[in-house]
């Protein structure tokens, strides 16, 4: 684990918490992700004690990874917490209010449970600090509205102009298209590049926007980039797509 920000996903269902944690963890293997769910009796619900214990365990792991003698995570690190429904959010808030140490290093996102977890995990994987990971989770609320606006703008653009520098059209080759794993690979790679990259008009650094394209096998995608290293960024992303992400 190299990321300095971890995620704790709180659900009314233990199975849902584990599943969401597994999904987010596969998107971002360098990020510590823990799911905690179910009531004290093992049924549906939330457990204040279980949430506190999970947060303490995650913070201890982050501190150990950072080599911190004071038991604190690395500078800019900490935990971003997501809850699935209202009462789970209230239980997380209670856990933070009752323990100043937890409140100092953990923050609660106001985001969709699954989408926010995926967006936060990919952002954390890139080495972002806690504030940036929190912002990424929270931004997932308006993600699909942004996709629609971007695609509408694409329709209105002239299509007869020759491709500009930093632009390339590629064909999706892998059988399942731009599903979760490939979208995460592209998103993480784009985060490493200096240029701003879009695919069919959406932000290629956003795993959610890429998945929402619904790009299946055989679809043509336009990869564009601006800024320093734009041409190299387009080449890199285009080659990833054309190679089929190892699934061809």
Strand-helix topology:
Elements: E1 5-11, H1 14-27, E2 33-37, H2 48-66, E3 78-83, H3 86-98, H4 100-105, E4 106-108, H5 113-125, H6 130-139, H7 143-156, E5 167-171, H8 180-192, E6 196-199, E7 202-203, H9 207-212, E8 220-226, H10 230-242
Structure description:
This protein has 248 residues and is of the alpha/beta class. The chain contains ten helices and eight strands. It has a four-stranded parallel sheet with strand order 2-1-3-4, with helices on both faces. It has a four-stranded antiparallel sheet with strand order 5-8-6-7. Helix 1 links the parallel strand 1 and strand 2 (33-37). Helix 1 packs parallel to helix 5, helix 5 (113-125) runs antiparallel to helix 6 (130-139) and helix 8 (180-192) runs antiparallel to helix 10 (230-242). It is elongated and about 55 Å long. It starts with a strand and ends in a 6-residue tail after the last helix.
**What share of residues is helical?**
40-55%
Gyration radius, to the nearest Å? 20 Å
Strand content: 15-25%
Termini separation: 29 Å
Structural class: alpha/beta
Number of strands: 8
The helix/strand order is: EHEHEHHEHHHEHEEHEH
Low-confidence stretches are 158-164
Structure at a glance:
With 248 residues, this protein is of the alpha/beta class.
């Amino acid at each position: 684990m190299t990321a300095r920000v971890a995620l704790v996903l709180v659900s009314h269902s233990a199975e849902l918490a584990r599943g969401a944690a597994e999904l987010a963890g596969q998107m971002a293997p360098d990020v510590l992700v823990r799911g905690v769910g179910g009531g004290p009796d093992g049924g549906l619900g939330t457990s204040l004690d279980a949430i506190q214990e999970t947060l303490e365990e995650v913070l201890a792991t982050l501190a150990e990874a950072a080599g911190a003698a004071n038991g604190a995570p690395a500078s800019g690190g900490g935990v971003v917490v997501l809850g699935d429904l209202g009462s789970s959010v209230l239980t997380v808030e209670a856990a933070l209010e009752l323990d100043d140490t937890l409140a100092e290093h953990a923050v609660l996102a106001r985001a969709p449970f699954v989408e926010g977890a995926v967006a936060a995990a990919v952002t954390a994987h890139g080495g972002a600090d806690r504030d940036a990971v929190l912002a990424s989770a929270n931004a997932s609320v308006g993600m699909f509205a942004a996709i629609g606006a971007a695609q509408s703008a694409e329709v209105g653009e002239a299509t007869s102009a020759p491709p500009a520098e930093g632009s390339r059209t590629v064909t999706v080759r892998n059988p399942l298209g731009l599903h979760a794993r490939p979208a995460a690979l592209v998103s993480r790679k784009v985060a490493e590049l200096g240029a701003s990259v879009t695919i069919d008009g959406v932000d290629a650094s956003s795993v959610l926007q890429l998945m929402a394209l619904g790009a299946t096998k055989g679809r043509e995608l336009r990869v564009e980039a601006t800024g320093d290293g734009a041409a190299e960024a387009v080449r890199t992303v285009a080659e990833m797509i054309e190679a089929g992400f190892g699934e061809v």
